[in-house]
Amino acid sequence: MTEHIVIMAGGVGSRLYPLSTPEHPKQFIDLLGCGKTLIQLTYERFLALNPEARFWVVTSASYTHFVREQLPAIPEEQIIAEPAARNTAPCIALACWKIKQRYPEANIVVTPADAYVPDISAFASTLRTALDFTRSGGAIVCVGIKPDSPHTGYGYIEAGAGEGVVKVNSFKEKPSLEVAEQYLAKGTYWWNAGIFVWRIDTIEAELRRFAPQICSVMDRIAPSLYGEGESAALEELFPQCEKISIDYAVMEKSSDVYAVAADWRWSDLGSFEAIEKITGRDPRKSY
């Protein structure tokens, strides 16, 4: 069973404007001043998990040149260009339909391109636990981060008690401060990192069950994948997909979702305050 890493890199990072712009969004910028962009850091983090994994990037057609420049080791056919922004469910479906054609037994991690995770060894250990779990069973595993504060800017996962991989009870939207404090006190709530692990047959089945409109579009696109007509098919058909997140489309409806809890440091770098907390400098002073 081959392992695949799908990096979602189509966002515009609007909360970080003017540092991040629609023309040059945050995932392609060295936000941390370390000499590497966020997508390069993400790629290296997963390369440490499995150097033999096949990498895929789904991004806007406007950003494919950034991917080629910053991740030259990824083959051209594994850079998937979205002609329109349709949120994460269509993005993930497109990548999985393309992977399925050549790797029908794939075990897949889907990840955002722009998170901060300094402890690569601990990260790899957590993701290995998730991949081993999905390899042997038809479940979805998401990554929950142990919260260190009542953060109101993150979604939460409510999961059962226990070590390793545990059943998810519910997903919670971004809470008020009072509710976030209650989550923190209970100890069974985790920040939702937006990282998902599944086998290709698992996610296809769940998408067909809960997002049939998106699947019908993917089935029409499928005959053109890897061929000269791929771009034209995407241009015509992909914008017809319902605009919906994978959380709403599948995660909150599926009865077979698990979580692996992580206590390593993590941030989605979604605000100037988050960047300043990590780097010790206010990035707004550069503009």
Task: Walk me through what this model shows.
The protein is α/β, with parallel strands linked by helices and 287 residues long. It is built from ten helices and nine strands. It has helices at residues 38-49, 64-70, 88-102, 120-136, 177-186, 200-210, 212-221, 230-237, 246-251, 272-279, and strands at residues 3-8, 54-60, 79-82, 107-112, 140-145, 156-159, 165-172, 189-199, 257-262. Strands 5-8-6-7-9 form a five-stranded mixed barrel. Helix 2 (64-70) links the parallel strand 2 (54-60) and strand 3. Helix 6 (200-210) packs across helix 7 (212-221) and helix 7 (212-221) runs antiparallel to helix 8. The termini are far apart.
Average pLDDT for all residues? 93
Shape: globular
Give the oligomeric state.
single chain
Number of helices: 10
Q: In terms of per-residue confidence, which ranges show pLDDT below 50 for 5 or more consecutive residues?
A: none
Distance between the termini: 48 Å
Secondary-structure element string = EHEHEHEHEEEHEHHHHEH
DSSP strand content: 15-25%
What does the main sheet amount to? 5 strands, mixed, barrel
How many E-type strands?
9
- From the alpha-carbon coordinates, what is the Rg to the nearest angstrom? 18 Å
Task: Supply the helix-strand structural class.
Answer: alpha/beta
Strand arrangement within the widest β-sheet reads: 5-8-6-7-9
The helix content, as a percent range, equals: 25-40%
